[in-house]
Design goal:
The protein is α/β, with parallel strands linked by helices. 33% of the residues lie in helices and 21% in strands. Strands 1-2-4-3-5-6-10-11 form an 8-stranded mixed beta sheet, sandwiched between helices. A hairpin with a 2-residue loop joins strand 8 and strand 9. Helix 7 packs across helix 8. The two termini are 20 Å apart.
Length: 296
């Protein structure tokens, strides 16, 4: 890789003001500022845009890429109150603000896990601003489950998932970045990750407090995203008529879209063989090739 591709991204601050609250969205900007944005990439729940630097930076010699920190994550400063939250409409509307702020032709919108689903929801609201979607193991429940999550009481079922309990129990204070790195290296969701990628996650995943370092994505906010699913990605797939490519993990996938989804001829689903939910981290070459192919 040359020096351009290894150079750090610029950081932009985008004003956002919608019914979920006003503030500033942090956006990493990779590539040549003289060209319009080609690709917007959205991170998974609990992470941040910087986590994916080693995935995205090698593409910056050919593409200009924006990678935002979602509400409640990284360096973004927007209200993030879990109380009363029922779905991911906040992330959808924040991404709509980002799409509205872009100049130039429609962009490729891509994302991992929750970021993929939020991208899909936003594209359905602004189909003219998005040329195509690339979703990496998006969180999409089956059609009947999605219907159930919109019903009173039944919408609380995902709140009993182990991911919710694990997020609430997550350690939230560290004395140093080295201590945090030691606590994550080779463990849990980070097992098998390159150390550089964990360090990139911690770069924006920790914030300074009077008591040391704390997670930028508070455990209660992360847990709320695992617990609330009263949004409808199936409706969004019907509303957005551009090409949608889904890359689905072979093991532990969060995506319940079948290989040939009924009534959605513009949606293609492919399995990443040997890939887990974290294949963008563990098989970065597969994810990077897919991003490049979508954007040229």
């Amino acid at each position: 890789m040359d020096a351009i591709r290894l150079s750090p991204p610029r950081r932009l601050s985008l004003p956002v003001n919608n019914r979920w609250g006003a503030g500033q969205m942090s956006v990493l900007d990779f590539g040549d500022v003289k060209r319009p944005v080609d690709l917007v990439f959205v991170h998974a729940n609990g992470f941040n845009a910087m986590t994916y630097r080693s995935l995205l930076a090698p593409l910056s010699g050919s593409l200009r890429i924006w990678a935002p920190d979602l509400r409640g994550h990284g360096a973004t400063r927007l209200p993030a109150e879990p109380e009363g939250r029922r779905g991911w409409g906040d992330h959808r509307d924040d991404l709509v603000s980002l799409l509205d702020a872009l100049d130039g032709p429609p962009v490729v919108l891509a994302g991992h896990s929750m970021g993929g689903t939020a991208s899909l929801l936003a594209a359905a609201e602004r189909p003219g601003r998005v040329s195509r979607l690339l979703l990496m193991d998006p969180v999409i429940w089956g059609r009947l489950s999605v219907m159930a999550f919109h019903l009173p009481l039944l919408d609380r079922l995902p709140g009993r998932h182990p991911l919710v309990r694990n997020a609430l129990a997550r350690r939230n204070r560290f004395d140093s970045r080295e201590q945090a790195l030691d606590s994550y290296r080779g463990r849990g969701a980070f097992r098998g990750w390159p150390e550089m990628m964990i360090a990139d996650y911690l770069a924006d995943g920790l914030r300074e407090t009077e008591d040391g370092l704390a997670l930028a994505c508070e455990p209660r906010w992360e847990a709320s995203s695992y617990a609330v699913h009263a949004h409808d990605p199936w409706r969004a797939m019907r509303a957005f008529r551009g090409p949608v490519r889904i890359l689905k993990a072979e093991a532990g996938s969060t995506c319940h879209v079948p290989a040939r989804p009924r009534g959605l001829p513009h949606v293609t689903v492919e399995t990443v063989h040997g890939g887990t939910h974290f294949f963008p981290m563990l098989k970065a070459d597969v994810a990077r090739d897919a991003l490049f192919d979508a954007s040229v």
